[in-house]
Every structure is written in structure tokens, then in C-alpha cells.
Amino acid sequence: MSDAVPKDANGRRIICDGEYATVHYVGNVPPTPGLWLGIEWDNPLRGKHDGTHQGTKYFTCSHPTGGSFIRPKKANFGVDFLTAVKKRYGLKDEQDEEQVIGKKTVAFIGFESIQEEQSQLNNLVDISLRECAVCHAGKKEEIYYSCPTIATLNLSKNLLSSWDKVADITHQLKKLGRLDLSENRLCLSPDPPSLTNAFLNLRVLSLNRTALTWAEVLKSASMWRALEELHLASNEITVLERPTDRLQSLTLLDISNNNLVDGNQLHAIAYLPKLKQLIVSNNQISLLNFPDVEFGHESAMFSSLNSLSIDGNNISQWSLINELNKLETLQSLNCQNNPLMESEKNPETVRQLIIAKIAKLKVLSRTEILLSERKGAELDYRKKFGIDWLKAGGNQNQELNNPSVQFLIDHPRYNALIEKYGAPEDGELKPQQPFALKNQLLTLTITCPDKPDQKPILKKLPDSMTVQKVKGLLYRLLKVPGSELKLSYESAKMMGQEIELENDLKPLHFYSVENGDCMLVRW
């Protein structure tokens, strides 16, 4: 460090005592003699004031304790791009060498060293300069001639102070497709469209923890005309505006860990034509609806969206899950760590309800939904709310089936499930008997129709026992791996009709297994 201060120090980013800050003032601070830098720390708890000293306002801070005055020698203003590259990748400095040509000794100043270094620079494709104090591009076109093949560049947590400084670097990297600028604080360019040529091939951009608002993102977005992925986690985004002529190529948008409270703010980005993946985890969203259509119809919003992450919000109402069924292409949903997930005693029940409510879902909380699981969830849903359906005007006679509008708002897929599986039978709609051991134990005959030498087994099993646990029991009895077993049963009341027990997670009473029935085991 030295007392020398760059001519453009005001507005520059610095490191002081390991902490990052922005210079807002360069000059005297009476009565103390000498030159001072007025800075605003990224961490406001590091400062002492708001830019005011002894009643005089020298600069403005966004936080009342974000400001400090420091001597210039304490400030690290950073290094140019290639200096950081050479230091990070251990490239050698130039060395003087001599060779004899004819009768003369000729000095080659760092000849082999330069060739080796240039060869290494030319081969760099994917580089990380995270926390390398990069502040500017360096000599004109030096990066272009030294590192022409860079395609992926991590410049996170450096000392870049503006988009113009970034563009000085990126316009020399013609193959650059992925760029990480997270944890920098970048001033907006006065003319963003003029920087478009610096980001012609940019497909993926990360701007996490850069203190950006959505309005600032939109102002800069005219620079990134080919952008497909934009990561904006942990910023200061509280409201969204519609990007009418920008971000139209976006397929992934990450706005997690921000301060969105109203889920309907998402309407602003609902018409991005190519958006396939949206991440809004760890905000404060509680409600979301798609008002362009009523229940039972497909919304025009998010027409290409197939993956949505809403983990860690304040979602507690099933109405939001109902609304998601309006999204035509939604196939993957992450919604863990919401109050809704605690609404049922058994977390598995919540999963089954979500599966039943969203028809096209194929992955829930990063776990594939198998066809058997979907069928079990939908049958269970149809049974669980069957009595409510009848009370609301539902009827097993299709001509008389007319459930109330409120029931259909609460259960918009119920009629579709009836069309798929038929109306629930009277036996399925019986209220569950109060717990008593005599009501829970079933006497079943267990037979192996494909193994005539295997004698029938008489067992008493709780009707709350899951199919999976029954398989575990039979594994011990028959010495056959449970994963290979296929179970079904014949009702004592309907001889000759075999019903498959296809969902391992369901209890026996889900399939209406009764006392005296015969369980059939195959492998």
C-alpha cells in the first residue's frame, strides 16, 4: 500500500483490513491534516457514521453506520486482469537467457519463459479469479491477445466498480459464455446498449449478492441479448416489473433469497416466452394465483415453465397448490420448508395430496413420482374427500353429480379423478371406525398360487399395516426378497375378483381388505 491515490479513486472499490468498501470521498477532513478517503463498507456494522464528521456532510451512506474515513495507504485498489491471472495460475515472471549464434552471444530477454507463459494463457478456457482484487482490464487488447479461448470466467468478489469496467474485460473475450460477477458492486452504465458487443455470446450470468434491485437489472438487461440463465440470489429485490423487450431468451431465472412478499409479483415475468425453470426459494411468498382462467383451465402464464422451486416461503394454503395445476407444462416442484408441509401429521400425506392436486407433476421435492405412486395418491384423494363431495352435492350417478362451486374451488381435480377412476363406492366412504384392537386386526389366509407345494398361512394383521411391511413379514416367512414380491387379494364377498396391492406405502384398509379375505403372493 502507498499514499498514492488513483485519479479515479472516487467511486472505486477497495479492500481494507480484509473488508470490502466503496470510496465516496477523497480529500481533507479538518481539523486532522492530510488526505483521507471517505468509504462506505459493504458490511454496515464495520463503520461508525453516515459520512458526516463534526457536523459536515462529506458523503452519503445507505446505512447510518456504513461510513468511515481511512488513510490512502490502508486501501488496496486492486490489480489488472492479467496480473491476477498470472498470480492465480502460478505463471513465471520473465527471465533473461543467452544463446550463442555463430560467434556471438545473443541475449533473449525471457524468451522461453514468455513462450511458455503465452502457451499457458492461450489454453485457458475455464478460469476462476474469485477474490483476486481484479479492478480493471489493463492495457488495451492485452487480454484479447493473451487469453483468446476463455469461455467460463468467475470474477466474483473482486473490485470491479462498474459495468463499463466489466465490459472492458469481456469485449476482449469473444468466446465467453458463462460469467460470474457475484459479490461485486457495479454502478450502472449511462448507456447500457452501447456495451452490447461486450456480451454477444454470454449465455449464463450470475449476479448473486450484488445489492441489485429488479429495476437496475432491467436497465442493464439490454446488454445481454442472448442470455439464457440469470442468477440473482440474495439481492434487494422486493418488486418485479415486466421486461417487455428484454430477457426474452431466458430459460432459467433464480431470484431466491430476496424479499418478495406478494407472489403475484411473479405475474410480471409470467410471459417470458422461453422460461423453463424459476427459483423463488427463501422469499416470503404466501399466496399466488393465475387470474386469467378459472379452475379446471390452463393459464397462458408461464407457458414454458416445467420446473418451479418455492422452498422456504410462507405458503400455508392449499389454494396455491390448486393454482399450480393451471400451469400447462409444470412437471417439477420443490416446496419444502413451508408451513403447508406441516399441515398433516404425516409428511407423506402432504406429498400424496400435492401429487393428486397437480396432474402433470413428475418430480416432487427432487424425487420422481412413479406411476404407481400417482395412482395411489389420486385414489387416496378421491376417497379422503368423498364424504365432503357428497355433502357438497356430488352423486355417484353422473347425471345427478353437481358439487358446489366452493367444493370445486377447493378440489378442482375431483371431477377429473371421478372420470378417471369412477365415483367412490359406498364402502370407500364409510367413516373410519374408532381405534380398537378388534377393529384393527384382520384374519387373512395367505396363499402362493404359483407355488402349489406352499401351504396356506393364516395370519392376523393390523389393517393399518402398509403393503411394504406386509412384504417384509412375508420375506421372513417365505425367505423371498420383499422387492420381488407381488401382492393382491380376493375379497370373501366377491370371489374370483382379484385386486392388486400396488402401492407399497398404502395400508391394507386403503384397499378395503377385510377380515376373512385371501392374500395372494407371487414372485
Write a short abstract of this structure.
With 523 residues, this protein is an alpha/beta fold. The chain has helices at 81-88, 111-122, 142-146, 163-170, 214-220, 318-324, 347-357, 371-384, 386-391, 405-410, 414-421, 437-440, 467-478, and strands spanning 13-16, 19-29, 32-41, 52-53, 56-57, 67-70, 79-80, 96-101, 104-109, 126-128, 134-136, 152-154, 178-180, 204-206, 229-231, 252-254, 277-279, 307-309, 332-334, 363-364, 367-368, 441-447, 457-462, 486-490, 498-500, 518-522.
What strand line-up does the widest sheet have? 10-12-13-14-15-16-17-18-19-20-21
Structural class: alpha/beta
Tally of separate helices? 13
General form: elongated
Low-pLDDT runs of 5+ residues are 94-111, 434-438
The CATH class label of the largest domain is Alpha Beta
Instruction: State the total count of DSSP E strands.
Output: 26
For the termini, the CA-CA separation is 77 Å
- What's the alpha carbon Rg, rounded to whole Å? 33 Å
Major sheet: 11 strands, mixed
CATH H-level superfamily of the largest domain = Ribonuclease Inhibitor
Helix proportion of residues, in percent? 10-25%
CATH architecture of the largest domain: Alpha-Beta Horseshoe
**Residue-averaged pLDDT, rounded?**
90
How many distinct domains?
4
Residue fraction in strands = 15-25%
CATH topology of the largest domain: Leucine-rich repeat, LRR (right-handed beta-alpha superhelix)
